[in-house]
Predict the 3D structure of the following.
Amino acid sequence: MKLLLVEDNRTLAADLKQFLTENDFLVETAETFSEAREKIGLYQYDLIILDLGLPDGNGLNLIPIIKERAFECGILIVTARDSVEDKVKGLDLGADDYITKPFHKAELNARVRSLLRRKKFNGGNELSFNEIRVDLYSAQAFVHDKPIALTRKEYDLLLYFLYNRNRVLTKESIAEHLWGDHIDQQDRFDFIYNHIKNLRKKLMNAGGKNYIRAMYGMGYKFTDR
Amino acid sequence: MKVKRRAIKLLTKTTIFYLIFTFLVFFISAIILSKTADRFIESNVEKRFNKYQRRLERHFKANPDLRHLPPTIKIKLIGDSLAKNFKPVIKDTLIYNENIDDYMHYRKKITAINLGNRNYRVEFLARVEDYYNLRDDFLAALIPVFFVLALGVIIFNYFLSGFLFKPFNQILNVMKTYKVGQGTPLPKIDTNTSEFVKMQELFHLMMNQIENDYRHLKEYTENMAHEMQTPLAVIRNKIENLIADERVMSEHSAAVKAIYNEVNHLSRLGNALNLLTRIQNGEFDKAEIIKTKQIIEQHLQSVRELAELKGLKIRSELSAEHQMVIDPYLLDIILKNLLRNALHYGDSAGPIIVKTTADKLSVSNYGAPLKFPREMLFKRFFKQKDNKESLGLGLALVKQICDLNGLKIEYRYHEGQHTFEVFPEEPQKSDAAN
């Protein structure tokens, strides 16, 4: 999978590039509007992560260009928080999804993967991990091919884990992924523990193994290692 | 006891002083007038007495018979010694007049004259009643003239104040209604009264200074909040790398955790401040009429499970009628913050209740009473001591939005229930006509 990361901050770009590379993506970066336009003209990408605030132009104007060159290419726009208009405009122009700054890397990973899946498999596809299988189309999880009843947020949590397997997900990241702005950061996220416990219990009751590991009180990791 | 000084209008003051001055002028002119009249009467009567005397002398030369004289002259023979030491006397007297059945003022001059080598005591009478009446009428006329003038001054000043002080009041009004940081130009009041011109200039100078300071402060906050986001994002990413590293975590998990928490705190602070400035800048101005029921239901849908995880129940009574005139994004922020607040502070004594009626939105939760004065509730950066992670901006944000959108937010605590109510500042116009 080949990604283009359009981000004007070099440190941030390098950091994200490293992260995405570790996640088995082939990543190229562009720092400016013109550089991005050039690369879009020259190469083929599966997905473009597009920061809208570029020094030499509004990233929104790149969207039509991308759509013209490579209609199949997924576009994930990165907007500043509260830029409702940018978000709406971007989606109208043909962006597939958006993520607001600042984001957790795990969140970016989940967005990228889910976007790519939607693009490549037209909605109906599966995600599996050992005995656990998730049908994304019907939003149904299975353990040993037996369906299990999850609440909406439990399902979202399981997906988030599956997209970010073998990676530590901090409680903040989980809380933000599931509840966004509804989460009060002053909560200390103790309720996340209950949430994890419920999901773990449901998976194990259906005969699954316990893959969710607590990590130093900071978060959780979904792993079989 | 302290004497409280009452403020008096400038024009009332000048009017009072003017009236006192006018009164003094009238008083003095009355005195002068009366003196002048007296002198005039004096000289006039004196002339008349002299005329009488000359006529008496002429009469005596022609006819020494002194028996048939006019009633205004009385004559009596006196001795030499008496005549020698006679001092003329002039005095006023009242004489009864049969025709009008009243006493009248006369002036009497008693003197000694020598006619044909004989001495006579002569009494001349002159009527001064008319003079006196004239004089008194003049003086009496001064009083109504004074009152008419005073009344005129008062009325004139009253209308003049409206006219003269119009620019002054307009400037005052500008001062009162002008809001710093709104970006609206200062309206200029047209006047050529030099005091007002000076006042207005000074006011504009002051406002520009304040406006400048305010802008600098705001820009500073904005830049600060904005510029720190990228470094914070980098730091956070790096920490996430560390978190993924088992070796680091096995030794430094406490430190990493602390750094991570603080960085997140800073980042959120920057975001909230950014949002606050953008709200103040009026960037969210796409106000529309929003039927809230569906939107609130969506919000409740997103937090219901979260509430259950915390052992809380949410109950809602939503009116399909309830609507608000506001930018949808701001409504979103209001709802999120009120719900967040309720979710955070709510205890399981009872449900969180979200309710809308035709014109009110209320969110309430059970919990212990506030440990601080309720005025502090909407203050920025105010937080309870035991709650150091809180930003202390959520309710301030809601208040700010309400203030800028003609909404009112009220808090009340009743029987263990904290309630926030949001409603239009002025009652909405009834749509019944449609």
User: Anything to note?
Assistant: Confidence is low (pLDDT under 50) at residues 429-434 of chain B.
